[in-house]
């Protein structure tokens, strides 16, 4: 097969169907950009889970005098010194799952509240004796929260056991929902792109039916006839895939590093690095070539008699 002939046929085909080729490029670019974006979103959620789940604590809140009047778990009154010592002793026996235990007194809890919510109207009416004492527990494995909850929930002197991870779970569920929506939209765009590719190949094959008929008469092989059409689709797909890679790189650059500069504005979020972006680009480029090529190959088998 002469490479010069194949390349010239590719150029002819792309020029003849310029509008449809442009539509293929745009649809492939958008669908693969969504594909890469969903993969990066999945990495971001995993990174955030690893970062935050490693930092969250389980808190055992103790009953105080005001809780005795309003909370059924504290009906027997505020936590006594013996109850506090027993809780500390039991936590000490859980060294296999407990990494660190920090006691927070009422004065310390009041100080932290004033630092965080000092401007709220409620802050001026609170006093230290209204705050709750607590034990902040750092677990070796955040998944072991239920062990602590089972051991201390309902115990005398304990008002409640709270896992801070449950607060984050709502955020992660929202992010996962957004990720699934992006995947659905990506699948829809890929389907549209495949339809455009098939139609483009069919139109191109029909417009060159005289040339392909002559090639069949002179004994050209099926692959020799099909190759220009397949490579046209591959080239269009590769251009679209390259644009998708550019979109992802620019998206990461302008949203996290510069432009919106989320990395400096949202310092509490551990954003994905460039390695997460760069590792997706080869997959996107390979998909951008293989997907149109296979679509064109099967379309030609059905619509081009070779």
From TrEMBL:
Organism per entry: Streptomyces bauhiniae
Protein name listed in UniProt: Cell division protein FtsX
GO biological process terms, semicolon-separated: cell division
Residue ranges constituting the ABC3 transporter permease C-terminal domain according to the UniProt record: 184-302
Compartments reported by the entry: Cell membrane
Principal location listed in the UniProt entry: membrane
Record's keyword terms, sorted: Cell cycle, Cell division, Cell membrane, Membrane, Transmembrane, Transmembrane helix
Keyword Membrane in record: yes
Listed transmembrane segments: 21-41, 181-201, 222-250, 281-300
NCBIfam families, alphabetized: FtsX_actino
Family statement: Belongs to the ABC-4 integral membrane protein family. FtsX subfamily.
Gene Ontology, cellular component aspect: plasma membrane
Free-text function comment from the UniProt entry: Part of the ABC transporter FtsEX involved in cellular division.
Subunit structure, as described in the record: Forms a membrane-associated complex with FtsE.
Membrane topology: Multi-pass membrane protein
Lineage of source species: Bacteria, Bacillati, Actinomycetota, Actinomycetes, Kitasatosporales
Domain FtsX extracellular: 56-161
């Amino acid at each position: 097969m002469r490479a010069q002939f194949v390349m010239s046929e590719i150029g002819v085909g792309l020029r003849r169907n310029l509008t449809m080729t442009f539509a293929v490029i745009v649809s492939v670019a958008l669908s693969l950009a969504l594909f890469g974006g969903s993969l990066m979103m999945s990495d971001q959620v995993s990174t955030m889970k690893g970062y935050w789940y490693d930092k969250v604590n389980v808190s055992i809140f103790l009953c105080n005098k005001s809780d005795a009047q309003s909370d059924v778990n504290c009906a027997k009154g505020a936590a006594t010194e013996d109850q506090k010592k027993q809780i500390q002793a039991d936590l000490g026996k859980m060294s296999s799952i407990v990494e660190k235990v920090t006691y927070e007194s009422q004065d310390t809890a009041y100080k932290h509240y004033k630092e965080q919510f000092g401007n709220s109207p409620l802050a001026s009416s609170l006093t230290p004796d209204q705050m709750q004492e607590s034990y902040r527990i750092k677990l070796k494995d955040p998944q072991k929260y239920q062990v602590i909850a089972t051991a201390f929930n309902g115990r005398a002197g304990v008002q409640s056991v709270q896992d801070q991870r449950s607060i984050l779970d709502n955020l992660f569920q929202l992010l996962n929902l957004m990720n699934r929506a992006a995947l659905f939209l990506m699948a829809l765009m890929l389907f549209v792109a495949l339809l455009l590719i098939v139609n483009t190949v069919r139109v191109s094959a029909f417009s060159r039916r005289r040339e392909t008929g002559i090639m069949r008469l002179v004994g050209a092989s099926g692959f020799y006839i099909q190759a220009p059409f397949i490579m046209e689709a591959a080239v269009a797909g590769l251009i679209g895939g390259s644009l998708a890679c550019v979109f992802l790189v620019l998206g990461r650059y302008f949203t996290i590093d510069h432009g919106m500069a989320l990395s400096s504005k949202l310092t509490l979020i551990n954003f994905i690095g460039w390695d997460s972006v760069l590792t997706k680009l080869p997959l996107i480029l390979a998909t951008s070539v293989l997907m149109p090529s296979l679509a064109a190959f099967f379309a030609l088998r059905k619509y081009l008699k070779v």
